[in-house]
Amino acid sequence: MARELIRLADVSKNYRKGRELVRVLDGISLAIEEGDFVGLMGPSGSGKTTLLNLLGGLDKPTKGDVEVDGRNISRLSTGALAKWRASNIGFIFQFYNLLPVLTAARNVGLPLLLTSLSASQRRKHVNTALQLVGLADRAKHYPRELSGGQEQRVAIARAIVSDPPILLCDEPTGDLDRATADEIMSLLQRLNRDYGKTIVMVTHDPRAASFAHRVLHLDKGELGAAPEEIH
Amino acid sequence: MNRFTLIWRNLWRKPIRTVFTMLAVLVVFFLFTLLEGLRIAFSLSDVGAAAQERLLTSHKVSLIMMLPIAYESRIARLSGIEAVSHGTWFGARYQDNPEFAQYPVEAEQYLALNPEIKLDEGQKQAWLGNRMGAIVGRPVANQYGWQLGDRVPLRSSIWTRNNGSNVWEFDIEGIFDDTDAGMNAGVVLFHYDYFDEARAFGKGTIGWYVTKGDGSMPIEDVMASIDAEFENSPAETKTKTEAAFAQEYAKQFGNIGLIVTLILSAVVFMILLVTGHTMAQSVRERIHEMGVLKTLGFTSGSIFRLTVLEGLLLVLPVGILAMLLGWGALTVVAGTMGAMFPAGLQIGAFSITLGLALMLAISLGAVLPPVIRALRLDIVALLRTT
What we know:
The complex is a heterodimer of chains A (231) and B (386). Chain A has helices at 48-55, 78-88, 104-109, 119-132, 148-160, 178-195, 206-209, and strands spanning 4-17, 20-33, 37-41, 63-68, 71-72, 89-92, 166-170, 198-202, 214-219, 222-223, 228-229. Chain A has 231 residues and is α/β, with parallel strands linked by helices. In chain A, α4 packs across α5 (148-160) and α5 (148-160) packs parallel to α6 (178-195). With 386 residues, chain B is of the alpha+beta class. Helix content of chain B is 54%, strand content 16%. Chain B has helices spanning 3-11, 15-43, 49-53, 71-77, 107-113, 121-128, 138-144, 192-198, 219-229, 242-251, 256-284, 287-296, 300-336, 349-376, 379-384; strands at 54-59, 67-68, 81-87, 92-93, 102-105, 117-118, 133-137, 151-156, 167-178, 188-191, 205-206, 208-213, 237-241. In chain B, strands 4, 5, 6, 7, 8, 9 and 10 form a seven-stranded mixed sheet that branches.
């Protein structure tokens, strides 16, 4: 049995919008095992991205604890969280979020600037990541010279280049056509299956969700009663 | 890739904008250097210590009114006086060039009173032995291409000769350097005896006396005693330190220092606004990317440093290049128009420091407000921006 990697205990997140208190997440408890591939679905505004942000240490819960690999990240300082993110989390966004002024290789190499690797080691890691996503021949291309699917693959290479155990994906296929979306999902599936990455993916697309081991439904800040097991 | 690559690539995100910003910086610091050179040249504020000790005695009413040569011995007899000499404004030009400074002087006394005039001993002896001889400051010799032994004609706008001509000829016997780059740097000095004998009017008069105290009494008391000596005479006197005199002389050009400073401030302020706006716009365009970098694990501190370094990289190298170009231009102008700028055209440590401080102010003033504002937002808010 795989060990528990992520645990949310009674997590709530509120925002204040003027005088109004908006409850985005309300008492969420959740456990995700190492090597799991979890899909998060739900209507817009249900709190999916907020939950993902809490898992990735981009935001802090109003109440409750987020533990990753036994460490309560809700209690970490901003600086410690940044350092923790650099070595534990790979983010994949809907709109890729590549830096337009950098080539694909340099975009992929960005997280490695935060490590103590030498320049040649960084180059080696970047090449490996680009080969893994099948874009070694596009290393010197700028994002504007790539298709949407290629940009997302560069973003995935950037997410895995420092070999983090967890990948958090926010609508990774939301901006892609069906065939390209399938390619991206297959790539994520391979990263999960062959490289043991634990993946949590927010998606609206049932087809993308079908690649996950299990799907959780969020609605009005609460997890749905009976998550549907896909595989 | 390293962090410098990231800074460099961000700097050239919009090449045309970067080039125009750099051109603006280049222009402002080139102008800054030229204007600083002019300000220093006109202010004569850097006259040396000797000028603080020497006294200039002129007619109380105006410098253009003459004093009797007989005053020399009376000043010399006053207590607290070590040496006296004199000078007179000759007001001549060479060919069609602008008028510049020439003084008929008593050679040995004048040189003794002005130790900053560095003249080769052989040239000095040659000058002393030639009644038509003259010595010239190096800037003047360079501008007009005068060599030792040349005979040069100068056309005075004031003094006519006994024969009715206002063209005076001099033999160049010496070329001197002025180590203080003060009032003597760009002048022609020639013999008073030759001048007094040959002039058609005003014989036995001089323009001003130069005096040095012997240190036995305060310089203010020496000044007061000279003026008291000639009180109620037909030609009352006004005595000041040479440094104060130089400042008042400079004021004849209007308060050029103030005007230059005001123009300079306006130009620098305008460029600051333009550069600041451009840099701020560049940072605003990247707020979303700052969110991405923070997501990847970059701290606010490291993003702050990257952005500040980018601002410095945009301004500092170009600003320093502009000041070097400005310094080169000043050197060229001083070489060709040395007689107009007797104190030389140059910038000193103060101007360089001021220039660098302005570069830092422009860089940091432009970058800090937007980047601090951006980094105060949390990552989620940064990522929400488009």
